Amino acid sequence: MSDRRRFLLSTGLLAAGAAAFSAWPNRPSSTTGSPSVRGTGVQALPALSPQAEVREPVVAAAPKPAGPAGNLAKRPNFVLILADDLGFGEVGCYGQKKIKTPRIDRMAKEGLRFTDAYAPAPVCAPSRASLLTGLHTGHSAVRRNPPKTGEIPLGANEPTIGEMLQAAGYRTGLFGKWGFGPNSGNNNTNPNARGFTDFFGYMTHHMAKRYYPEFLWNNGQHYPLPGNKGDSGPLYGPDLIMQRALAFLRDADRQGQPFLLTLTLPLPHAPSVTRALGQYRTKDWRRQDKAHAAQITQLDTYVGTLLDELRRLGLADNTIVVFTSDNGPHEEDGVQHRFFDSNGPYRGVKRNLYEGGIRVPFIVWSPKLLRKTAKKRTTHPTIQYDLMATFADFAGIRAPKNDGLSLRKVWTGAGGAPKHEYLYWLRLHAGSTRSHRAEDQGRGKRCAAAVRFGEWKLVGFAPGTEYSTPGKKWTYELYNLNQDPGERRDLAKARPALVKRGERYLKRSWRPLD
């Protein structure tokens, strides 16, 4: 019996069956237009255009809790905001000078900011799969980005954060990019089948590159957007997704049910398409750089709107909000990452296993639940596959078998938090850009893997494009991150014992796919 099936049977969720899918009201929700954002100076979201004849996304009926409900009212809510290709240095609180991110900066000032937090992979699909399942990329079924046609589904035996929390009585929503199945409605790979009671957004990675999509998915139903042409039109996809996420918040508040809201907007992924250049319009910059900056500031506005709504609804004190990114900065569609210093002091970009490709912003915010760590910074090394164990710990439930460790003691300031023996990353070929190739010194298409153990980091390159057992045919680089965070002084020849230690971790971490 698979781990996922055993988990679902043990919680009763599999027996509930249809509870994983949303009910369909006969008429649209009466909630229309833009949310009220009072006294914040944050731009309200635009109402849907009446000329476009687009109905408001329906708000699905909340399923009955499938797990124990006795302490539901005491369990915290979770909001997970995952940016797309946002570099470590692309927000103000991490050193950005050109791009304005006042709301994320305020979130960091009020919350706990991590300096040593990592995405699980240097590209989107395996990184997000690892976050959702708590499995690192040597164990997860998704280990590379999808081909130009088709998507790679999550492993059938790998429970998700959504399934875990839904089984415990949570309402679970995902709004934005999914990316683990075909661009079709109800099937066993879409978000509703993998633990999310509510979904609105892009079903595939490739679809999410269209900021003015011809349609989005409202759970398993097509949601047409008349007049949109992919990169232009009357209806900006992220605005609609954000409206639907806010409607989910309000509906969950009315239901009085604990919730997980996962916001996976495609910003600031290429192409650099935005509905307005705003404050960057008059800058003496290249067009692509203006649009990229505007994308990030738009993302910042959405974050502020969401936090304001939590406060307005009285949910902030019992809600934990996490803001992070799925990998390092991109340089696609002509964006110049060096112009913005997008990777901060680190080497590499998206697709590299050097720090710039995997070290990301990570901020945790909760005015009451995490008050002891408010306005603080931590160097505790963490990786996004820790989130499943952490959410389970806060919810008072047992997580499915995974590779993560709970960060509860770090987030609450309790002390004595467990630390990983090592952190692991895998990179299978996932496209190529100029800076990525230059940093990898001609090895950009080769399989690569890395481990961080304490202050040391080993980066290894396989002899070919596919995985092979780490050994004599691999080439290794060793860095001391405390003394050399920019990874410029390779110490592999000087410290062979540490190279061997790291190699053992690499070998231990790989499990062949079934």
Q: Count the helices. How many?
A: 13
What general outline do the C-alpha atoms trace? globular
Largest sheet: 10 strands, mixed
Low-confidence segments, given as residue ranges, are 14-70
Strand order of the largest sheet: 7-6-5-4-8-1-9-10-2-11
Spatial separation of the terminal alpha carbons:
13 Å
The helix/strand order is: HHEHEEHHEEEEHEHEHHEEEHHEHEEEH
- Helix proportion: 10-25%
Radius of gyration: 22 Å
Integer average pLDDT: 89
Structural class: alpha/beta
Instruction: Compute the number of strand runs.
Output: 16
Residue share in β-strands: 5-15%
Condensed summary:
The chain contains 13 helices and 16 strands.
Fill in the keyword field for this structure:
514 residues, 16 strands, single chain, alpha/beta, 25% helix, ten-stranded mixed sheet, globular, four-stranded antiparallel sheet
Characterise the protein shown here:
The chain has helices spanning 3-11, 13-16, 102-110, 124-133, 161-167, 237-255, 287-312, 337-340, 355-358, 387-395, 408-412, 434-439, 496-509, and strands at 77-83, 112-114, 117-118, 171-177, 198-202, 215-218, 221-224, 259-264, 319-325, 362-365, 376-378, 382-383, 423-427, 448-453, 456-461, 475-480. With 514 residues, it is of the alpha/beta class. Strands 7-6-5-4-8-1-9-10-2-11 form a ten-stranded mixed β-sheet, sandwiched between helices. It has a four-stranded antiparallel β-sheet with strand order 13-14-15-16, with helices on one face. Strand 14 (448-453) and strand 15 form a beta hairpin. The chain is globular and about 60 Å long. Residues 14-70 have low confidence and may be disordered.
